[in-house]
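Entry details:
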Amino acid sequence: MKSDNFRDLVPYVPGMQPGFKDMIKLNTNESPYPPSPKVIEASASFNAADLRLYPSVDVGPLRDALAEYHGFDRSCVFVGVGSDDVLATIFQACFNSGRPLLFPEITYSFYEVWARLYNINTRKIPLKSDFTIDADDYIGVENGGIVIANPNAPTAIAMEKGEIVRIIENNPDSVVVIDEAYVDFGGETVLDCVNKYDNLIVVRTYSKSRSLAGARIGYCIARPELISVIETVRNSINSYTNNRPAIEMGVASIRDEEYFRAMIKKVIDTRERLTKELRELGFNVLPSSANFVFAEPPAGITAKEVYDGLAEKHIYVRHFKIPGIDNYLRITVGTDEQVDIMLNEVREMLKSIHKMWH
């Protein structure tokens, strides 16, 4: 068999998923807390006999719940198997002009993977020296679409809503996708702009703030015309996407706002303490509006050395071998206990270096 029959791709590489029972996993931006008690109840009461039946083709119950929650008609909502599925479908549906798709040079690396997979021309826009996105770089530039994660990953920095609106308004003939995977932790949403701009798609996920990474639920909200195009592509691949238990758990989560807000507050409080303590240890920590921090170690130790030292203790953070950010670590906000254990190990590393110098 000839190898030229096959696609030559560099796939997305997720954070390590080791199976150590004693590990502290701060490398995949999952929630450290369980999902809502209502979700657990819905899971426990699910009738497994119903698995013989296909799920709702249009994910009806969850679509209706999301539409009501966000104040839109159901025709404005599309649901997929995690936001990755939603984004991949959008890439196939909306970026076919031949003109380059614009996205930041440092951002969620799956964007480039999808672009290569679907033969979409791209133009990666450099970040400013402080790792922020400059809206002017996306204005007056020929493009066939724009994708921006806000807050951005892996930097955790959020754009101001007004700057995103400028990008949307100045690209009326291009679809602008705002990936709001982390917006609940401090960013400004542009959901309220959907009814005003027919070129805007806002993507959300249950994996972070709703503690349901394992259920694989994502969705997007846009004008019905765009949703229809996305649905056509999805139904050309697989009409039955989200499974029955996931649909029921997704509805249950939406109906427990009190728990949702309480868990977000816990993560934000721990994030602020983690940021403060890392800075006191000499780290350069970028301002975070996400459920993780992006931090550069102090002089005398590299990010790779900190990463390796923590991994030896079965504490996992994320290190990217990418020019410009290869001396930074992305650290997911865990529980207070997990953060304390990680910080204590970092302190011990820094003490050892200090002794070597003296």
Remarks:
- Residues 257-280 form the longest helix (24 residues).
- The first strand starts at residue 24 and ends at 25.
- The chain has two domains: 3-30+258-357, 37-255.
